[in-house]
């Protein structure tokens, strides 16, 4: 990798956080070390089908207008190791094997005229990092799980604040089915479930999860966490269950945190 261009005079220390989700992409500039978004958050609908080239072109075209940054952190809703996508359940087979980090870095370099380091991370891992650093799990020790309930189910596992990346616990099997195929937030809407009906599915999922991984604290994230009070009465795991603080911004803030903590010349190691 080339040495990053020194654009510190204009970029300051702002980091661009990009959160690729199953239905949209959200992005914003973040003050690293504080977890605060600066200015407006942009939201882009994913083209259907969400093939890599049009999605990445859209992200770079939109975000490059947002002003200078010193780094970019980008989430992906699948396993991503050392910048490369390994699984992409809700995005399509074209993503598997793609060097997401290299593809973004190339496009941002072309748009900005200089190279800016890009770091990639699983979306739920990024959301969990934001919650552990500044949110609902701040200062929590021991085993902490963050789950994101959205188009799919994502998971982030922390041990004394250190992330164990790419855990993929949304795919544990319950009653012969992949958990995210019945307990993700999309099913409440798509199957027109009551909060009790859907909350009971989430309860079943969380209790199975804690039977496998005895967490002391479970943070529930994803857009639906803003309605936490409506389904919390149906959740009965032994662990404390709390709503995420960052809601829809968790991925952006967490991606930026991972990018600013990582050494861009080395493989991504999304510890906090
Ligand atoms: C993916 C995870 C992702 C989650 C939430 C799942 O289908 O396998 O990697 O974190 O969806 O987007």
Compile the SSE list and pairings.
Layout lengths: L7 H4 L3 E6 L3 E8 L4 E10 L6 H13 L6 E6 L3 E2 L2 E2 L14 H13 L5 E5 H12 L8 E7 L3 E7 L2 E3 L8 E2 L2 E2 L1 H4 L1 H6 L4 H18 L4 E5 L6 H4 L8 E4 L6 H12 L11
Parallel strand pairs: 1-4, 4-7, 8-13, 13-14
Antiparallel strand pairs: 1-2, 2-3, 5-6, 8-9, 9-10, 11-12
Helix pairs in contact: 2-3, 4-9
The structure holds beta-D-glucopyranose.
Structure write-up:
This protein has two domains: 8-124 and 250-261, ATPase, nucleotide binding domain (Nucleotidyltransferase, domain 5), CATH 3.30.420.40; 138-247, ATPase, nucleotide binding domain (Nucleotidyltransferase, domain 5), CATH 3.30.420. 48% of the residues are buried. The chain is globular. It has helices at residues 8-11, 52-64, 100-112, 123-134, 180-183, 185-190, 195-212, 228-231, 250-261; strands at 15-20, 24-31, 36-45, 71-76, 80-81, 84-85, 118-122, 143-149, 153-159, 162-164, 173-174, 177-178, 217-221, 240-243. The model is unreliable at 1-10 and 264-272 (pLDDT under 50). The longest helix is centred in the last third of the chain and has 18 residues, at 195-212. The strands form four sheets. It has a five-stranded mixed beta sheet with strand order 3-2-1-4-7, sandwiched between helices. Strands 10-9-8-13-14 form a five-stranded mixed beta sheet, with helices on one face. The chain is an alpha/beta fold. The chain has nine helices and 14 strands. 32% of the residues lie in helices and 25% in strands. The two termini are 23 Å apart. Bound molecules: beta-D-glucopyranose (BGC). Residues 22, 77-79, 87, 89-90, 122-124, 148, 150, 152-154, 168, 170, 180 line the site of beta-D-glucopyranose. Beta-D-glucopyranose binds at residues 22, 77-79, 87, 89-90, 122-124, 148, 150, 152-154, 168, 170, 180.
């Amino acid at each position: 990798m080339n040495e990053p261009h020194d654009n510190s005079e204009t970029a300051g220390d702002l980091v661009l956080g990009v959160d690729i989700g199953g239905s949209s992409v959200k992005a914003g500039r973040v003050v690293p070390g504080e977890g605060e978004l600066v200015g407006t958050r942009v939201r882009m609908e994913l083209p259907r089908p969400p093939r890599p080239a049009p999605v990445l072109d859209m992200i770079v075209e939109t975000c490059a207008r947002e002003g200078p940054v010193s780094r970019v952190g980008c989430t992906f809703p699948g396993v991503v190791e050392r910048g490369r996508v390994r699984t992409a359940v809700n995005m399509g087979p074209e993503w598997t094997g793609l060097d997401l980090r290299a593809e973004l870095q190339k496009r941002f370099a072309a748009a900005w005229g200089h190279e800016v380091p890009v770091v990639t991370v699983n979306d739920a891992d990024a959301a969990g990092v934001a919650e552990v650093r500044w949110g609902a799990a701040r200062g929590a020790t021991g085993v902490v799980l963050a789950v994101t309930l959205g188009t799919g189910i994502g998971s982030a596992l922390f041990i004394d604040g250190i992330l164990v990346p790419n855990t993929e616990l949304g795919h544990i099997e319950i009653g012969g089915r992949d958990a995210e195929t019945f307990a993700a937030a999309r099913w409440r809407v798509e199957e027109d479930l009551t909060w009790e009906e859907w909350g009971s599915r989430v309860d079943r999922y969380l209790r199975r999860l804690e039977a496998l991984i005895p967490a002391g604290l479970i943070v529930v994230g994803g857009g639906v966490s803003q309605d936490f009070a409506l389904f919390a009465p149906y959740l009965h795991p032994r662990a404390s269950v709390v709503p995420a603080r960052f809601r829809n911004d968790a991925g952006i803030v967490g991606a930026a945190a991972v990018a600013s903590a990582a050494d861009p010349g080395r493989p991504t190691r999304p510890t906090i």
